[in-house]
Structure formats: structure tokens, C-alpha cells
Request: fold
Amino acid sequence: MASPVLSFRAEELLVEKLDQLSQATDRDRQYHLKRALARYVESESWHINAIAEGIADAEAGNLTDLKAVKAKWVTRAKHNVDGQSGQ
Reply:
């Protein structure tokens, strides 16, 4: 089964840099683009996973009271302000 073909436009300067990288590494554009896309998708997938985990937690009743969340952030903000004022 053949791989799907993707097509997109890129700025000329970016393409020039890609070509320089390709030439310096003796690899073609496709090699570098596939690696870059795989790395990007992997690094950004955490967001989708985090949302799914949050929904599962909420459905299981594992929720934190809003007052507790606010108190935590107020304490953190106060700590940051106090820490910076001493510098």
C-alpha cells in the first residue's frame, strides 16, 4: 500500500534552509520533512491525551473543588510576588 501524498506551501527562505540541510546531510527533502512532521505530531499529541485523561477523570468523579484550585493559585501568585520583591 502506497503512502498518502501531502502537499503544502512554505516560505521560500524555509525551503532554502531545508535544501541546505538536505545537501549538508546527503538526505533528500522528504527524509527531513517526514522526521520533522513525526517529531511535531509526537510532541503535540500530549494535548489530545491530556484532554482525554481529564474527561476520563471527570467522568469517574475525580474532580477538584473550584475553591481549592483558586486557593492554590492565589498562594502560588503570592509566593511568586513575595519571592520577586526580595530580589
